[in-house]
Amino acid sequence: MSSTTPHEFKISLPTAILININIMLGAGIFVNTPELAKRAGMLGGFTYILVGLLMLPLILSIMKLLQLHPAGGFYAYAQREISPLAGFLSGWSYFTSKLASSMLMIHVSVSLFQHIFPALRIIHPFILDTAIVILFVGLNMLNIKAGSIIQKMFISFKIIPIFFAIITCIFLAQPDNFDTTHALWDGIFSSLPLVVYAVIGFEAACSVSSKIKNAQKNAPLAVLISFGVVILIATIYQTLFYTALGSDLCVGDHCDVFPTLIKATSLNPSIAYKLLGILHIAIASSTLGAAYGIIFSNCWNLHILAEKNHVWFSKLFSTLSYNLIPFACVLAEGALCLVYLASSQGNKIPLQQIGALGCIIAYAFSVAALLRATKHNPHHADINPWIPKLGMISCAILASACIYSFITNGIHSLIVYGCLLALGVVMYFSTKKNYVEGN
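Now predict its structure.
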């Protein structure tokens, strides 16, 4: 091995936006299509707007924190404004829960590939899941520049099914599907956790902010632009899908959505079969891209905890490879993905719940950090204090929706996540004497 190491690659603003969009437009928008139709009817698209409005103060708070701590992350926000323990809980809860989202995306893509290629059905899906996790761990050992190129490749797959659905549904629109009888208001609240899961990912810029060019300016812009783009696309996508298919969208799961849409086009069966295959391959590939993006960005959350000596084997987890990648953190991500796969048995709802709840915990700590900054150092924070206050209200509403979902669907999925949080607390206090202060 050469004695020199490569120069650190910095991510541009367009690439940072694409990374966020790549993660946000993952499995959620496709998995949610029939679920939101069942729960909220024609209001499924509206739930994206509602969540967008609920999360706007949160978005503005995260943007301000990125300006205050451009090379930080969820750990840095709470650690610098509240305490090291608050910073650890914020960073650890995000790191562990985000991998539940990654595992869900991988499992959804595997189910789609097995649906497309019957020959794959002889292989147990968990074997394919594990193989993809191992592949992604290997790919994330490459340098950041290579990872950015891979993400750009994956995001191109997302364009195909989303825009095909939007354009096709415009031509198939049935005004009768958009009257008040299809508005299921009582399903709005139970839909919120699913939508939150679908749009979280905007905060990936926080995890890699130290790797973004001119992070103080570009990282907040990446958050705002990517969030706005995804909310707009998801709203149009869900609304037009229901306008075209109506109650037919409520039958089956995500694997049945595009077959139902193509059937409604009355295309030649041979052409329809080939088109469906292309769309499902694109969806499965784009979902894999989102999972890859999470592993790509999330490893730095564990890395910063290791740099502060908050975890066991801190020296190992804080060490960078020749490619300037925290290789042990990437390996830990792969291991946690497999833990979630084994504990959930591939059930989508628990993984969605964990992914959403862990992110909300990190959001709450971050907004509390900004609220504290506005009180103790208002000139430094320079933001309307009502924004973090409204951000805390947003977090409370979203957390309530998650808890309601856990109660409705069973709290057993909380056990593994609770054990991981407990493990984190044990690590924090057992390594407290080794804590490294400073930025």
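Confidence is low (pLDDT under 50) at residues 1-5.
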